[in-house]
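Our consortium's second objective concerns turning raw sequence data into structural hypotheses that experimental partners can test. To show how far this objective has progressed, the report includes one record in full. It was chosen at random from the queue rather than selected for favorable results. The single chain below, 268 residues long, was entered without modification.
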Amino acid sequence: MSDRLSKEGRKELKKPDAFVAWGRKRVEELAGSTRQISILVGVIVLVVFGWYGYTRWQAGQSEKAWESFYEAYKTEEPGRWAALEKMYGDNSGSRAGSYAAVVLGDHFLSLAKATVDKQLEVTPPAAAAGKGAKKSEPNFAVNLTALPVEKENSAKAAEWYTKASKFSGLASEEKQLLEINVANAYEIAGDLKKADEAYQAAAKTSSVSKGLAMMSTGRVAEMQGQKDRAVQIYQDIIKEFSGTEKNREYERLAQSALRRVQTRLFNE
């Protein structure tokens, strides 16, 4: 009997009680959670190292792009511009590529301005103002409309400035200035509608060059003979920058332009 009881007792001892069973279950759950945490940590580590590797790779690509830009820019003129065009084609998605496009835009815009300046030497604005003038038109519109234009190089300038603006890493101030450059090129080309649209787009950005964009929009309105619209734009500029020290010069420029537009001398 005692032998049987001792055997049964040993069997019972081998069976865990409720507390031990609960403890084992908790340990197993903890072990499972630990495995999940380990997997999560592993994933995070992989993401961090992947991001670090991509950042390093991107920095390397950017460095190579800038090296390509400097090599292209060192090329003697006139071959420099073709070298920069090729450099942009190979690095269009980089900041260096965007800057190469800006340099090309500046180059073609300077050629366009030089052509216009030569034309002005032959036909000064005062002499050109009398051509096609109507008594019903204000002289300020006739004067500006009579200015010479240059289409070929200014069109190229607008194209390159537009390409430069496609870089996704541009700050809002940079994009705004490029929009103003595009508009300036269209203005020199005589495409006042596109110039007007581009200046208006630039004026929508509340940045350091907003006043310049608004003043340019007013000037293009004058060039199109839109007196009432020009007056409204200059009044908006005065209201926008009144009492501000940072861009107070735009308030003064707008006041001067408004007086000119509204003066009887310019409307007869």
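The partners drew two points from this record. The chain has two domains: 2-64, 75-267. The chain has a mean pLDDT of 81. Both points have been shared with the crystallography group to help prioritize constructs.
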